Amino acid sequence: MRINKTSLFLMAFAFYLLCGAWLPVTDPVEATYALSAKEMLLNGDCLVPTLFGDPWFDKPILFYLLTTVSFKLFGVSAFAARIIPALFAAASVTLLFWFTNRFVSRREGLLAALVLGSSLHFLVMSKLIVTDMVLFFFSNAALVFFFTGYHEQAASRRWYIISYACAALAVLTKGPVGLVLPGMIVLAFLVYQKNLSELKRLLHPAGLLVFMLIALPWYGEMVNRFGADFLSTFFGLHNYLRATVSEHPKDNVFYYYLVLFVLSTLPWSIITLRALYTSSLACWKRTADAWTVFSLLGVGIYLLFYSLMATKYPTYTFPALFPAAILTARQIAHGRTSLVNALRPAISLLAIVFFYLSFTYLQGSLKIAISLLLAIMLYYTWKRLNDQPVVTSFVYVMIAFLLVCGTSLTNLAESRSGVSLGRVAQPYDDMPIGLYRVYSTSAVFYSGARMIKLEDTAELINDGDVWRSKYHIPTTSVDDFFRKMPNTHPAIVFVKEQDRVTFEKIAAGKQYVYLRNDNVDPFVTKQSTKVDGKWMSSVSPKN
Questions:
Q1: Which of these, 88, 52, 167, lies nearest to 474 by C-alpha position?
Q2: What per-residue confidence (pLDDT) applies to 182?
């Protein structure tokens, strides 16, 4: 079968969606986005993201809106939420193929799509319910269409306008970086090319107008509704403060993104690093073509920009994989590294990752069966690379990856999810539920219950952490939680076994009965009921 844009998109979408089909929503990050979209659907407000009923301005509206639409069409579920990252992952791979095929060759386009689509970071992000895959697509699309307009001068205005539209959608996905980073890359490229006069064509009023019509109305509406609260929260806390104050000080080291980039590009890391070196050398000698220069600047500026920021997140430099895949494909296509020699270490690295996941997150006979099947598939693929088409070999590897996703990764996700807790809590969704010293937003997503984090009174004192205002988790002290419970309502509290003794000391004088709780290890569930101001211990759990 001859692969074209449509078939590539459909195959990629099916693959990425299947990879995430079995995974529950995990804590803490995925659950906040999924719950916010669920609340928007229930509230009927498609403009204001909320979390636990309050406006939540961690990110702009686009990702929440897309997820809300998916919930509306397919029902509220983890599967529906994962449709969006899978969709944009497939679109990104297809965009890269289209771009490279247009300016270089079909073969190099397929190689670039293969490298990007199978890179470790891309595989992970293709199933995560976060904004970054949507940003990945729109920010890189803005660069793709700029470059297209730059080289097709007769139609440059049309391509530049499309580039502005994509940048606007990136700004609606994650804020100012959706324009700032692509803008820095474009400016650096024009400086290197000694062609700053192109800015006159680029800064066309029609393009600027399209950008403003798409990006600004939502921001204007939020300022109109919430005024200074929106400005200080979104631009102050979530943008300026993250750039100047480290949210995770231990990660604020200069080599953070250098190490992450090597891991992100697995299993192609060795070839990618070699491609970056040869491209840098060519740029230094001024022998590199515009394609190579543009791609190298895309990688370098993302890594440098975020290395200078105080807060480090694994997803910040994720868009740099797009130009990195272009350079890696060129390294292979130009004969500097044969594809077979490139795939052997790639498959070996994948095998190590697959076996680690299987042995860590599977038990008993399933561990043995999956590991044996993986061994047979990967060995056969590695051994027969010289004898069979590369695409066939790659299909075998992707089938192996699907096996891992359906078994090991599902167990890993469930260990980080409150899906079981949500099932146990669901019958009590008409009353407050306390979680002592822990919290699970995904349990709220699955149960629909009102859950409150219970802390010791001393732990509620503000410790001066500037990041506390970022979180909207409902929190109160143990005493206040029981004091405010109505006489007619039972109180349900989930306590981890390790905190059980401490909790019972703080809740002294209040009597409880244990609920049977086989599904929510390591939680101990305790129930009490309040009648005429007295705590009774004879209540039975609600069926």
A1: 52
A2: 96
